[in-house]
Structure prediction request, 306 residues.
Amino acid sequence: MSTIDWRGVMPAITTPFHPDLSIDHASLASLTRLMIERGSTGVVTPGSLGEGSTLSREEKAAVWRTCVGAVGGAGSGAGGKPVIAAIASASTAEAVASAREAEAAGCRGLMVLPPYVHSGDAREAEAHVSAVVHATRLSCMLYNNPIAYGTDFVPERVAALARALPNLHAVKESSGDVRRITAIRALTGDRLAVFVGVDDLIVEGVAAGAVGWIAGLVNAFPDESVRLFRAAIEGGPEASRGLYEWFLPLLRLDVVPKFVQLIKLAQQEAGTGNERVRPPRLTLEGAEREAALRVIRDAVRTRPGG
Prediction:
């Protein structure tokens, strides 16, 4: 069974596109290396932020191969930092096939989402997740985001899945309720590593017992993201307060419907990417874009030193 040290900052990386909206694999490799070089402990791709729903299965497999190659191959290079494949599909059969393709591409872990479109009841959602986790021997993370996906893995069900699935090792908690972290830890102890999945809840989440962060704005601001996480882990809310207050206007860009466009725009301003997105998303324009640029440019102008 594959094992991963589930902790630290693991970016949900964006997928860069050429002007014709084909995947820019050279830029994807560069972004992957940048995240690892700046202190991230792994990368997750292609999740919601990576526009996974607009990528074909073949494109996803190519993304995984590029990212694995960028960290030096499966289980090697870059300190052995893992590539985590986000597995999301409307079909359980397709999700299982994608999980096996991720393993073949050299990914060392899976982040397993509930099915798209049909959110189903708890029994159906758990059957879907269980099928994907059982499909490989890779270490797995459960992704709980009831706001986005309409399926809520409450702490008691998370604990039950942990008991039933030996290679389920982590959970990304994105309900927005920091009490969930405390509840999961009370039920599972150290059996599961709890990750914060909401950017503007990271300091509170760490204070509640989270050991990792699936982060979004890290794509544009890797140094500040890693410094913030480490300050929260090592010194708590007081030690991280100043950096957190500077970062919060940016981190809040992660929790609105157009978070993909906003984070890619932040990357463009920070020099780590471009704002191109695939339809049905469209790049921001007009007053909406100008308002976002004011927030981003103010943050760049006042960017704290190391």
